[in-house]
Description:
Two copies of one chain form a homodimer.
Chain A (H helix, E strand, L loop, with lengths): L7 H22 L6 H11 L6 H14 L7 H23 L9 E2 L2 E2 L1 H5 L1 H19 L11 H15 L4 H11 L6 H25 L6 H28 L2 H4 L5 H4 L5 H28 L5 H12 L3
Antiparallel strand pairs in A: 1-2
Helix pairs in contact in A: 1-4, 2-6, 3-4, 3-9, 3-14, 4-6, 4-7, 4-9, 7-9, 8-9, 9-10, 10-13, 10-14, 13-14
Amino acid sequence: xxxxxxxxxxxxxxxxxxxxRVEAALEQWVGAGAPASLAEPMRxxxxxxxxxxxxxxxxxxxxxxxxVGAPAWLDDxxxxxxxxxxxxxxxxxxxxDMPCMxxxxxxRGKPTVHVRFGEAGALLAGDALQAQAFELxxxxxxxxxxxxxxxxxRLVALLARGAGARGMAGGQAIDLASVGRRLGEAQLRExxxxxxxxxxxxxxxxGAACAGELSAVATDGLRAFGAAIGLAFQVVDDVLDVTADSxxxxxxxxxxxxxxxxxxxxxxxxxxxxAEADRLLAQALAALDASGLADTAALxxxxxxxxxxxx
Amino acid sequence: xxxxxxxxxxxxxxxxxxxxRVEAALEQWVGAGAPASLAEPMRxxxxxxxxxxxxxxxxxxxxxxxxVGAPAWLDDxxxxxxxxxxxxxxxxxxxxDMPCMxxxxxxRGKPTVHVRFGEAGALLAGDALQAQAFELxxxxxxxxxxxxxxxxxRLVALLARGAGARGMAGGQAIDLASVGRRLGEAQLRExxxxxxxxxxxxxxxxGAACAGELSAVATDGLRAFGAAIGLAFQVVDDVLDVTADSxxxxxxxxxxxxxxxxxxxxxxxxxxxxAEADRLLAQALAALDASGLADTAALxxxxxxxxxxxx
Lengths: 311, 311
């Protein structure tokens, strides 16, 4: 039996206040105390745009993990983790768009950061966003935060692993080295597991870590869920790169095919890629069931949303 | 009375095994588990080069802080902190050398990372090094590390602050915005306090944090020491940019003047800058005295080394 998911209306009702919290926190935190010439590109890169999928995964996973007994600090930890992972995501987009990488001029319907602030400004803003992600989770003024040091250290560990050479950055390096080459399905899967999947999976695991100690069964279930929707996300991304237009995507469509990048569509065909996304969704929902956690409806609904999205 | 410093021989005898430990740890850790195309530029950027001043400051500060009672985890924590701060330093050099920043082709007597591995490779390697700095301090497999979570969280907080928008990255942004403009001494000092000073100060504070709880007097003394030698380092850098040649420096000499960057030499003249370095050294040594810590001879000797260095 697959885990029960909320209807899209129920999901929307839950998402609205969660997104409002995240936006308010980002508005307050991003670039605070930075020199104006740095704060501006940092805020431009993060605020007023983005689906906030990773923060929502953190918050939904914290909700599920907290259903076995929510500690007092859960909300604070989850909000910091949610914003931290979003800053990592945002920095990766800034650097990814730069001329030496994808050389993209359009993101979320706006000029990319380097187009607006110059390459040096984009480079520094990305670097500072990565540092701030860790600052948010382990703030220097620790007395302001009720989150136990154990939870902070675990969140840092999960985020650093997901972002680094054995996660997102590692996947980007494989991607970079693979342009114009033919990857097999196993290699393509490994690249995406790292490039996009690692941070999505980290989001789910960070949400779970906010609750403190969790059973091994619950932890394993959430980890498997994160891995499956991490891959599903990328499969859908590859489908959308072919089927959607730039205006809907808010970024340049068709660029992967144009750059001769290996994609799931190139490998499996359009129908095959769609079937693969459905298979991964079923796998994600089965993992939620196996976690034994009570309150997984938000996570299940987000998984459906990831596969059904049109941008 | 100024704090007693080791002679240069005593310092060398202490440094030799410390540097060997740091090099061995970096050799083991940097880029481990990363795809080869990423591990290679990461390791090129870090290994086999560099004065390792920041790691030495961490280790010397841990020694001083541990002189009031060294906890069992002190050495492990200090080694991880030492390597973490060095990875942040290394990433900042990689990104700083890129064409959109200083466009430098020579570093530590070798071609810079982007010259050797391309701009995209340098960008990704720098990003991955920053993430790994935090991974080293808060490893995911926490059971392998005896360092208490409280110490891990504090080390992450200090490093993230020192590296980020209110630290190194903030100083670089001010630097970038100031090219061709005339900065007053206060503004120049603020830029350098962030750009170079913040990470050097963080090194000292991280070393102190490795010991766990420390008295406020000791903490304040070490912080003031770190701030003073952070500034002294940059003043000496500005002097060397004018007086040393590229072969000795292992990087391009005279580039600040050529880029019309504001420097202490431009502001105070060569003799004035040298006098300022001496004043800051005296200030640093006085702060060590005020810390009340017993074993500050290594820190004092490093401070002398910073001011007397020729590269």
